[in-house]
Design a protein that fits this description.
It contains four helices and three strands, in the order αβββααα. The chain is mainly α and 174 residues long. Strands 2-1-3 form a three-stranded antiparallel β-sheet, with no helix packed on it. The chain is rod-shaped, with a radius of gyration of 42 Å.
Length: 174
Amino acid sequence: MRVLLLVALLTGVFLPTASAEIYSCRDRSGELHFSDNLQGLPDGCRSKEQKIKPGNIDNLNFVPSQPEAPPPAVDFQRSVRAVDRDRQEVAQQSRQLPLRAKKLLEDYRAAKQQKRQARRSWSYRSREVIKQADEEIVRALEGKQQLLQELEKSELSTEDKKTVQSLLDGIVAE
């Protein structure tokens, strides 16, 4: 009986100090790992381990990991590419303005010429030609106003703006 009492006493004394520690960590893919020793954890998350304190296991909460944000370098590269695309687009539109102004002036001059010829050689079809020429002239005047608005917003050099402006000055309302 003494032996049994001694065994019970020793077990009661050493049992509370023999509890194991449990470690947990979350790896890069978001997987949660548990182990009773640090060597049992994956290499990638050994520096991030946390000790789980003994207590009521019903109180264990699972908190999902936060999705990893892209590295700042990726966001920076995306924004640089977006700015480059915007600049190229503006430059492309600015290069198109003088060409559009020349085309508009040519269309205006062709319409004026058709109208003059129809008046000189009056025929049955002259009224129709004059009406079409007048419509072309109106379209040219509207196109001039649109190009002038785009010219104000464009990033053309002052010299290029003057060139476009002088082309558009050739389009005059009657």
